[in-house]
Amino acid sequence: MLKIIGKQITSEQEENVLEFITEGKFYRKGSSVYLLYKESEVSGMEGCTTSLKVKGDTVKMRRYGESVPLDTVIEFEKGKRFEGYYDTPFGAVEMEVLTNEVENCLQGDLGKGTLKIDYHISLRGLTEGRSKLDIEII
Predict the structure, then answer these.
(1) By the 8 A CB rule, do 87 and 107 touch?
(2) Model confidence pLDDT, tens digit, residues 51-110
């Protein structure tokens, strides 16, 4: 089971928190750890699967499924910028992500731990803000 907390912090310092618990898959392949879970209607992405590939302090997130016509891929690594596209109901939007922090406390051999990602995201012409994603294997 995964406890997922997502926080979006606006430029006015307002904080929107989304929290849900879901079943997920956790496995190790080579030197990477993978977390997979299905999004819920709470997240607004029902029908979508999120896959996280964690290697050290680098995380590659991929979202795919029937509710997202275009797969979304985001890479998180402290201090690095990632540019890509984010799929919306109105089409793909250019996206830029700057990762502030990645805290990997997953214990791959025990199947427990936490993963925290703190980042700034800009969706060209739509929104800009800071986000935090906390995942705990419970």
Answers:
(1) no
(2) 999 999 999 999 888 766 667 899 999 999 999 987 766 677 889 999 999 999 998 777
Q: What is the pTM of this model?
A: 0.88
Q: What's the CA dihedral at 6, 40, 29, 70 to 10 degrees?
A: -90
Sheet holding 2-9, edge to edge: 15-22, 2-9, 127-137, 112-123, 91-107, 81-88
Strand residues in 10-126 grouped as ranges (E): 15-22, 24-29, 32-38, 48-55, 58-65, 68-77, 81-88, 91-107, 112-123
Which structure tokens are listed for 57? 């302090």
Q: Which helix (H) or strand (E) holds 2?
A: strand 2-9
Q: How many CB atoms lie within 10 A of CB 37?
A: 20
